[in-house]
Every structure is written in structure tokens, then in C-alpha cells.
Amino acid sequence: AIERAAAGESAVVAVVGEAGSGKTRLIAEVLDSIHKDTVVLAGACAHLVRPIRGLRSLLRCLAR
């Protein structure tokens, strides 16, 4: 999906895992390696809230 996005296609990547499994590090490494003109929207959702809140945070990021 990252390669498709870099080629100009739309792509969605969800990173899911246990606390401490390296999700943040993985995302940081990927973001460092992609083209600077690539638009990245990021959102997060705590496991105690409704899953739709993650989408809401993405839409807020897009609106900025």
C-alpha cells in the first residue's frame, strides 16, 4: 500500500497491535522513507471508545 501511495494511488494502511509491540516505531520508519509530497492522514482510537472515532480523527486531519 505504501508503494501504491508513493506512485500516486490512494491507499489505506491500518497498523494494529498490542501496546509496546513497535507500532509507533514502524510508522515513524515508514514516514521517514516515503516521498515528502505524499499526503499522510493519521488517526488513533483508544480501545475504550467507539471505533468510528478513529475515522473522525482522520477526517479532522483531512479538513486541516
Features of this protein?
64 residues
Secondary-structure topology with pairs:
Elements: H1 2-6, H2 23-33, H3 52-63
Question: How would you characterize this protein structure?
Answer:
It is a single chain. This protein has one domain. About 45% of the residues lie in helices and about 0% in strands. The protein is built from 3 helices and no strands. It has helices spanning about 1-5, 25-35, 50-64. The radius of gyration is 13 Å and the shape is globular. The protein starts with a helix and ends with a helix.
* Strand segment count: 0
Number of contiguous helices? 3
CA gyration radius, whole angstroms: 13 Å
Structural class: mainly alpha
Instruction: Give helix % range.
Output: 40-55%
Proportion of β residues? under 5%
**Uncertain segments:** none
Indicate the mean pLDDT.
Answer: 78
Task: Sketch the topology as an H/E string, one letter per element.
Answer: HHH
**Major beta sheet, specifics?**
none
Shape: globular
Brief overview, please?
44% of the residues lie in helices and 0% in strands.
